[in-house]
Design a protein that fits this description.
The structure is a homodimer of 165-residue chains. The first copy, chain A, has 165 residues and is mainly beta. Chain A has 2 helices and 7 strands, in the order αββαβββββ. Chain A has a domain of 106 residues: Phosphoribosyl-AMP cyclohydrolase (Ubiquitin-like (UB roll), Roll), CATH 3.10.20.810. Helices cover 8% and strands 25% of the residues of chain A. The first copy, chain A, starts with 47 loop residues before the first helix and ends in a 13-residue tail after the last strand. At the A-B interface, strand 1, strand 2, helix 2, strand 5 and strand 6 of A face strand 1, strand 2, helix 2, strand 5 and strand 6 of B.
């Protein structure tokens, strides 16, 4: 069984955006326990019609794929629970749920590398959203332009197929 | 406690690619039980150096963001466990783990809408891969060109920022 450390410790003292970290992986992991599948979801003001279409992971999250508006560059992937999606839709500022810290974070709040939301699209089976943004500065907390800089070797590459598109 | 229904029922009878479904959401959900965080991971031949960098969901998965090679179009998001990533890297055919069916699926195996892998990049914190592909036909099992056709209303749009890029 998981331990009984306090939950949601990062949620009660937010005022504005400044106190919310935007580089959740840079600090030590939280000691708050992970939610388990039997836990009730965190409360959210998300439109129930949208919430009903989400198909979440065991810990209540959907994948948020973030793409730079106008260029197609995929910048990062982060996680949203219902409330993070609600805040993203209603503030126009990309807001995520940190799995390691168990708290919300607004991209750019501490780094200045803001993400101004242009569009949010849900996928066909409700487990991912595609967020297009105006990205200020580096999208990755490492300082890289995007988070996908670690290329893995594809050893089974197939020669170009005859495509029907 | 979860029930004790058999696991991995879809793994033992693959021969080639034809028997593997590629539209995992079209059928009824499996009755196989979901893995819980205490379960051992499914066995995989994935390079241990890559496996060590993955930061998986509670059910052992990373998000696979799939982008069309050359255009930037984000086609879909699916899930990979270690073995699905291994198969993707070593066969050059995009291979995923179906959460609903609890089995592997090779995109295009039944639909003909193949994904020939051009590159796979891991993100900075190991919880997502970006897969660029040559997509044959429609990427979405609905017949749509991509899965992200359900636009959600962004009510808090901020006017264009002064950008520093």
């Amino acid at each position: 069984m998981p331990d009984a450390a306090p939950r949601r410790s990062g949620r009660t003292e937010q005022s504005g955006t400044v106190s919310v970290p935007d580089e959740p992986e840079a600090g030590p992991p939280t000691t708050a326990r992970r939610p388990t599948p039997g836990d009730p979801p965190r409360r959210s003001a998300l439109d129930p019609a949208v919430a009903a279409r989400l198909r979440r992971t065991a810990d209540g999250l959907v994948a948020a794929v973030v793409q730079r508006h106008g260029t197609g560059e995929v910048l990062m992937m982060a996680w949203m629970d219902d409330e993070a999606l609600h805040r993203t839709l209603t503030t126009g500022r990309a807001t995520y749920w940190s799995r390691s810290r168990q708290e919300y974070w607004v991209k750019g709040a501490t780094s200045g590398h803001h993400q101004y939301v242009r569009s949010v699209r849900l996928d066909c089976d409700g487990d991912a959203v595609l967020v297009t943004v105006e990205q200020v500065g580096a999208a990755c907390h490492t300082g890289a332009g995007n988070c996908f800089f670690d290329e893995l070797p594809v050893t089974g590459t197939i020669t170009d197929p005859q495509e029907d598109r």
